[in-house]
């Protein structure tokens, strides 16, 4: 139904609101046209297909009759307004118009002017502004017609009626174009299905793995981390094929699994650090899985214990690699064990050991050397070879170290022996100058450094065995030494940690903080950090350059006898007389793992690599804590060619 400008006014023409049929602004009316627009206008009725002929005839008659009355009233009002002035009347004396038809029209028009969802021309911003500036008609008393303000000429009524007509009769035309309506909530209300753009649909559906060359797609995926690669494998078969490329997983493995904490150089492949040699047939995806499972076991402390039996007394020192374990004992022997089979291969000892069957066979006739597995089964029973050389130790083996060429041992007899590891560990020379037991040693390509109970440190030429320097400065037994480059770190029973320059032989820095004698110290591979511990039960981590104590690590309940820094992972392994083995994080100082009472007596030595912790103690057993024993394919991380 059409809406009129006043109660009795007829329908507003669609072209009298200042807009043409195309919605563009029409030329401004002339003065004559402006005057005529205050008169009643011709009735127009939009077509309605649902209205019958009888209804049309009846309503048309009513409109003509009402239109004639309205015409006379409007004309009289207009003429009166032009000739006379109305006496001013207070607004408060006027009757209320809050419920009048005109007020309701203004409310509806005002609401629709601010609607954001009506694209019809009658809701253009310019028209809304013009309508709001037109004064509202002043209602009359009783049946008197409303008073149209001077100069308005009925424009407010026409504009409002035009807006309402267009709203009523144009709604069905506009609904098909509406895509969103303001609802007052955070949900967009759509009347019709959104129009799908072929352009955007084609962009969203493009699979770049199909569009790009395989080589380029693989290069892109190579930058993803492990989590993203696992997700990429599940996208589609094409993605799975590309994301399974050995190149992608090799990059991910080398990028994420070769990070180090305190190494002086990047990790070398095939150096026994959990990075195998590059081979054409290497399955890098499987290697990544293995490394991931191994790291998870370290985080959870999921280690399998294996005990190697054979020594007859306390085992003071140990070193190992991927293929062998070398131990030194109070029983005066050095023993070499096979890491794969856990069998003992060689015993090096004094002459009275040769031919002594009691060393290799027990009273029950069973081999003395065997491995006690996690399921308590007895495996790897072996009968090792026993050798003795003219150059040998007559007392306890307190310390040792080896590389691919030589093995060096230190003993309670005050001497060190250098062996050719490639010639069945045949001794090549003896280093003799200390006047008391050799408590620890270290060497590199140029020097062999030893420390002793005689409170001194000796520096030897590796090639010739000549003593080059003897360093003095400690006032107690020097219990541990280690070297990096031309720098030596030592610790003593005098509570002190000292740094020495090999070239000058001078003490260059001293670290104070411990309150009791020190038993062990360690250098990180890059020489930036020092760890020390002893009888005060505390482990201290120092900045080697500044002398600052970075962390103080409590936890042990007795003397800390052994320390080992894994510079690749940043783990610090400690062994104590409280029979515990602990794993700390070097960077944060937090305790990562604790293995209490895995030894039945004092822990005397503990070392680790990427897969294992191996420790020795007063009980004559070697403890292998294997974090990769149950991982399928763990041997692929080894550095064998």
Describe this structure in words.
By secondary structure, the protein is α+β, with helices and mostly antiparallel strands. Among the domains are: 137 residues, no CATH class; 95 residues, Monooxygenase, CATH 1.20.1280; 98 residues, no CATH class. It has twelve helices and 31 strands. Helix 3 crosses helix 5 and helix 11 packs parallel to helix 12. The two termini are 93 Å apart. Belongs to the WD repeat MET30/SCONB/SCON-2 family. Keywords: Repeat, WD repeat. This is WD40-repeat-containing domain protein.
Structural topology:
Layout: H1 31-36, H2 53-83, H3 101-113, H4 125-133, H5 155-175, H6 198-204, H7 208-211, H8 214-221, H9 226-232, H10 237-243, H11 246-256, H12 284-300, E1 304-309, E2 315-320, E3 324-329, E4 334-338, E5 344-348, E6 369-372, E7 378-382, E8 385-387, E9 397-402, E10 406-411, E11 415-420, E12 426-432, E13 438-443, E14 447-452, E15 456-461, E16 467-472, E17 478-484, E18 487-492, E19 497-501, E20 507-511, E21 518-523, E22 529-534, E23 539-543, E24 549-553, E25 560-566, E26 571-576, E27 581-585, E28 591-595, E29 603-608, E30 612-617, E31 621-626
Parallel strand pairs: 5-8
Antiparallel strand pairs: 1-6, 1-31, 2-3, 3-4, 4-5, 6-7, 9-10, 10-11, 11-12, 13-14, 14-15, 15-16, 17-18, 18-19, 19-20, 21-22, 22-23, 23-24, 25-26, 26-27, 27-28, 29-30, 30-31
Helix pairs in contact: 3-5, 11-12
């Amino acid at each position: 139904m059409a809406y009129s400008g006043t109660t009795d006014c007829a329908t507003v023409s669609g072209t009298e609101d200042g807009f043409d049929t195309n919605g563009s602004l029409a030329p401004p009316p002339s003065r004559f046209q402006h005057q005529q627009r205050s008169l009643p206008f011709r009735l127009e009725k939009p077509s309605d297909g649902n209205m019958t002929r009888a209804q049309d005839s009846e309503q048309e008659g009513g409109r003509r009759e009402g239109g004639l009355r309205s015409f006379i009233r409007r004309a009289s009002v207009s003429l009166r307004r032009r000739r006379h002035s109305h006496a001013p009347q207070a607004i408060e004396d006027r009757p209320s118009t809050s419920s009048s038809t005109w007020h309701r029209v203004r409310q509806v028009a005002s609401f629709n002017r601010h609607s954001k969802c009506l694209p019809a021309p009658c809701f253009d911003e310019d028209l809304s502004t013009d309508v709001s500036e037109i004064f509202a008609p002043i209602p009359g008393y009783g049946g008197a017609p409303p008073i149209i303000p001077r100069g308005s000429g009925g424009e407010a009524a026409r504009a409002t009626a035009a807006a309402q007509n267009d709203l009523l009769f144009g709604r069905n035309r506009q609904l098909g174009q509406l895509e969103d309506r303001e609802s007052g909530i955070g949900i967009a209300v759509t009347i019709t299905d959104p129009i799908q753009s072929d352009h955007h649909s084609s962009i969203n559906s493009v699979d770049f793995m199909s569009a790009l060359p395989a080589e380029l797609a693989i290069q892109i995926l190579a930058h993803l981390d492990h989590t993203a690669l696992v997700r990429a494998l599940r996208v589609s078969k094409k993605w799975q094929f590309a994301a399974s490329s050995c190149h992608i997983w090799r990059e991910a493995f080398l990028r994420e699994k070769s990070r180090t904490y305190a190494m002086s150089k990047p990790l070398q492949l095939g150096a026994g650090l959990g990075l195998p040699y590059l081979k054409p047939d290497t399955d890098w995806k499987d290697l990544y899985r293995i490394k991931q499972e191994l790291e998870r076991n370290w985080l959870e402390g999921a280690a399998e214990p294996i005990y190697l039996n054979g020594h007859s007394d306390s085992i003071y020192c140990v070193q190992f690699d991927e293929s062998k374990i070398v131990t030194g004992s109070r029983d005066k022997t050095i023993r070499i064990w096979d890491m794969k089979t856990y069998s003992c291969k060689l015993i090096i000892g004094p002459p009275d050991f040769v031919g002594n069957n009691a060393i290799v066979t027990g009273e029950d006739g069973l081999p003395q050397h065997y491995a006690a597995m996690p399921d308590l089964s007895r495996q790897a029973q072996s009968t090792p070879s026993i050798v003795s050389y003219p150059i040998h130790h007559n007392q306890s083996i307190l310390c040792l170290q080896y590389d691919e060429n030589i093995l060096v041992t230190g003993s309670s007899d005050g001497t060190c022996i250098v062996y050719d590891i490639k010639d069945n560990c045949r001794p090549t020379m003896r280093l003799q100058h200390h006047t008391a037991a050799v408590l620890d040693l270290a060497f590199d390509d140029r020097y062999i450094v030893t420390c002793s109970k005689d409170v001194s440190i000796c520096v030897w030429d590796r090639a010739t065995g000549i003593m080059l320097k003897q360093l003095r400065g400690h006032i107690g037994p020097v219990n541990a030494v280690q070297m990096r480059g031309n720098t030596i770190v030592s610790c003593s029973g005098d509570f002190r940690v000292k740094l020495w320059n090999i070239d000058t032989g001078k003490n260059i820095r001293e670290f104070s903080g411990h309150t009791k004698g020190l038993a062990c110290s360690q250098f990180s591979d890059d020489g930036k950090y020092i760890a020390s511990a002893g009888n005060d039960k505390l482990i201290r981590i120092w900045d080697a350059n500044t002398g600052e104590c970075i962390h103080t690590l409590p936890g042990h309940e007795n003397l800390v006898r052994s320390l080992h820094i894994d510079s690749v992972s940043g783990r610090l392994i400690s062994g104590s007389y409280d029979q515990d083995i602990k794993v700390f994080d070097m960077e944060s100082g937090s305790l990562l793992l604790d293995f209490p009472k895995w030894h039945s007596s004092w822990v005397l030595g503990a070392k680790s690599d990427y897969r294992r912790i191996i420790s020795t103690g007063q009980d004559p057993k070697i403890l292998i804590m294997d974090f990769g024993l149950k991982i399928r394919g763990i041997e692929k991380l080894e550095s064998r060619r």
